[in-house]
């Protein structure tokens, strides 16, 4: 028996910002969930189950917050499940929700990812001291920068490619009302001149710290057929993991990433991603990850991803493969929601509902998230038509 | 086993400050405590929840109508704590009880401060006792004491 066809019926996001001091965690999640239900033209009563994801509990200091969110998310008397896969959690949460539909366990599932970074310090939470080891307090930037330098050395990419990615994503963000960073007057020179934090990563090439939530309502084929607004049909879903340290590991282009991409494209029947995909939302918390993932995912030849940045291929302004039209993680990063935002923005593109950052006529789009030391991967492909 | 053969063990203390954003409903309850006032929240059927919840526990609808409630109520069930554990906020033996305040529809857990277990009974009437210095915390409410006839009349 084949899997049930699954559709994205609704998307809801909060305006991402550094501090949402006006709402509790419950209030923040409720806002996104309510908007997703409104978009799906459904009532709380019509939802069968809730799947929620967020990054480590240490990020807010609320242990197992899902346990107190049942009322806020309309989950009273229904299953509520929590997913955690580090930074990729927003993507894997959506995929767990999709699997409940694909397996015909449920007909309509609400899924949500959130983070309230203003309540703590994510860098601290990621760098807790451990007995018998020296904490180098590298943070995520310090961890990934040597890997980016390895990519630069391998591919021969010019030094300013990262700045071009950051500037492009901030320009895209100006077209997305939900984006955290709206830097109207930012110039490319200002990106280049911003302080070098972890060479090659400058301040302007890093993601912000955001409060926010993103939700989606997923439904089975019948509910997709009945929906009042356009829906996005799920064409492929894949998740992979790997250890962050084993002999022969390719940190620049992890095996799990390549295998996950191969699986999801195979499911969707896609053999030439660059030609067949119209819009891409990939998880780029540091600028250099755009060309690195473009290669790993198969959108670019090995060592050539940076050329797609340099020649404008990934720009919403006329590029062949617009990447992160929403502004991406570089413009909004409520960590636990960031992966789901990628998946939701991919869905908005093929629904034709992405507003000013819409790719004209997008029929198939790709959503991506990664987490840990580039160890956990979640990807989906959605289309305007049924698979 | 020699010292060298023993697996290593080390203490790890994790300590870090967090911020908690309460939102309007929980925030109003906390601010009320500072002012020696108790607030609940009214549901669409008129029932009142104390402490208040942001969303209806049955319908999930947002709850917004804060109402000030009585500081006196009835002990629904209780247990006697003697001696209190070192971490307890109370030094002396006391009851921990579910207390339903007059006119409300849920009970809240708090201490009943009486001298001995023999003074406790289910159904007894109690009234709030506040600390002198209050900061907007549940511990601003020191506990509940037996209601005197004067208060009752």
Characterize this entry briefly.
The complex is a heterodimer of chains A (387) and B (153). Chain A has helices at 25-40, 89-102, 122-126, 139-155, 161-173, 188-193, 221-226, 255-267, 273-276, 289-297, 305-310, 335-351; strands spanning 6-13, 49-53, 80-83, 108-116, 196-198, 201-202, 211-220, 232-241, 279-281, 364-371, 376-383.
Low-confidence stretches of chain B: none
CA-to-CA gap between the ends of chain B? 73 Å
User: Which two protein chains have the largest interface (Cβ within 8 Å of the partner's Cβ), and how many residues from each?
Assistant: A-B, 31 and 23 residues
Number of domains of chain B: 1
User: Could you state the order of secondary-structure elements of chain A as H and E?
Assistant: EHEEHEHHHHEEEHEHHEHHHEE
Q: Low-confidence stretches of chain A at least 5 residues in length (pLDDT < 50)?
A: none
Considering DSSP H and I runs of 4 or more, what fraction of the residues of chain B is helical? 10-25%
DSSP strand content of chain A: 15-25%
CATH class of the domain at 6-122 and 208-226 in chain A: Alpha Beta
SSE class of chain A: alpha/beta
Question: Number of helical runs of chain A?
Answer: 12
Oligomer: heterodimer
Trace the largest sheet of chain A across and list its strands.
3-2-4-7-1-8-11-10-9
Order of the strands making up the biggest sheet of chain B: 6-5-4-7-8
Number of helices of chain B: 2
Output mean pLDDT of chain A: 95
- Measured as a percent range, the helix fraction of chain A is 25-40%
- Rounded to an integer in angstroms, the radius of gyration calculated over CA atoms of chain B is 20 Å
